[in-house]
Amino acid sequence: MTPRPGGPVAVTGLGLVSAAGTDVDSNWKTVLAGASTAAEDPRLADLPYRVTCRVPKTDLPGQLGRDRAWRLDRFVQLALVAARQAVTDAGLGGGAWDSARVAVVLGSTLGGTATWESQQARFHGHGPTRVSPLVLPMSLPNMASGEVAIDLGTHGPSLSTSTACASGTTAIGLARDLLLQDRCDIAITGATESCLSPFTITAFGRMKALADPDQPAVHASRPFDANRSGFVMGEAAGVLVLERPADARSRGAAARALVTGFGASTDAYHSTAPDPSGRGAALAVHAALADAGLGPEDVQHINAHGTSTRLNDAAEAGLIARTYGGSPSVTSTKGVTGHTLSAAGAIEAAYTVLGVQHGLQPPVANLTRVDDCAGIDLIRDRPRRQAVQAAVSHSFGFGGHNGVLVVQRA
Question: Which of 183, 191, 193, 273 is most buried, with most CB under 10 Å away?
Fold first, then answer.
């Protein structure tokens, strides 16, 4: 395999909003504690599937300005909060940049499902005159990147990615490419998703993708556990600020870590199930490692996609066992956050950055009995003190989309 022209980019800012917390520090503490956030959701009381991982109660409209927030679906509100955090963390508050050289690349697949559902109910219950004229600008998936650009006053490329649960990883890889191609000097990138609405939950439940509703909520999401039965839906937004290392140094900004490789591929196997052979996913892994100039044996830690579904966990465990030569430690943070769909790759990239930065890797929550299929070095019970030079984050989505990021110490 011939690696494509690449190079590292620095992660100079992070922003996180998830069920694990409403900022980076609270997220990291909850993930390190392996504390599940799954709970009975009173908004779904009439459904068979009632467990979700919601962002803790917080005044998003108060943070964003109520005169603006009412025009925004929740998935956009989460993105704006995370983006503001990341820009401040990077020391770029106040727009200290050439706005034409700042890109925004965010992933979201389902967009404003809550808006669609509520407005459909109005349409069927009261007729077309009761439908809001804001339905489309509130619900289109690209409005996350568009509204972040508006909020921050950026005029460079504003792009959206939609590769299902790999959308966040795809967005970060695309943003890195824009930097390396000199299409921008700063990239604000990640993903957002908030689709914990009754119809969407029902759709995933009918696919038999969700955890057994008779399990206790707190243990429902249990990646790689022998008793896993499916995932718990979550909501989140994760945003990273990326810059070329020389540019970050020139303005005195510290890099939390470096993104040094990205790989993407397609299973071309099934619309929802992963290829059990792992061939497609392995292509993405090898492409990302070649891009970073590394071999499989150089990887010391993996943040696995680890959805807590039987097929995905088994296929990914087999992929890891066959592909990586150095017996890397493995975690899946979805036991804490639930599956945040498009946002998963973004928040997990951020957790991987934090793990590399701090030399501390989080455990898999709710892992009581490792499935026989695993055969990998899963982190259990407590965080593992591990100085990692190179880590990988996996993301695999419906449609066979695969995305892999390589993160290295700065």
Answer: 191
